[in-house]
Amino acid sequence: MIISGTPVAKRIFDEAKAVASGLPMRPGFGVVLVGDDPASRIYVGIKERRAEELGFVFRKEILPRTATEEGIICAIESLNTDMSIHGILVQLPLPDGLDTDRIIAAIDPEKDADGFHPETVQGFLSGDRTLIPVFPEAIMELAKSSGIELSGKNGIAVVNSELFGSIMQKAFEYEGIVPTIVPTVDVDARIDEISNADLVVTAVGQPELFSRNIFKAGAVVIDGGISEKYGKVRGDVSAEGNDIDIFLTPVPGGVGPVTVACLLRRTARLAAGQ
Question: Distance from the CA of 135 to the CA of which of 156, 172, 211, 266 falls in 20 to 30 A?
Answer without folding.
Answer: 211
